Amino acid sequence: MRDDIKINDRALAMSDQLINTFESIFDPEIELDIYNLGLIYEIDLSEAGHLHLVMTFTDTNCGCADTMPFEIVDKLTKIDGINSVNVEITYNPVWKMTRISRYGRIFLGISPRDGK
């Protein structure tokens, strides 16, 4: 799991499944997944199986802001142990290109030296 994502122990225990899911959800304008794009800030999974996800978008006018949360909920609730999902959108802190992973930077043709 990326070190810039705040995650509790329950969610961390299923990090491989979470990462695989996040890597299957793409920002349609940038054509990079939400995990490598650095849109995820926080993941908290309760004992009851409720996952609270705090994320952002690359811009406040992102066209996928209305549809992407539904896709995220749909895909995450298919993981065993996750019964419900709440997606909280925040713009604080503001997303910056430095949040793009090394893999994402290479994929997008940006110098990987500045990525995490």
From TrEMBL:
Its recorded name reads Metal-sulfur cluster assembly factor
Q: Source organism's superkingdom?
A: Bacteria
What region holds the MIP18 family-like domain?
17-89
| InterPro entries named among the record's database cross-references | Fe-S_Maturation_MIP18, FSCA_dom_sf, MIP18-like
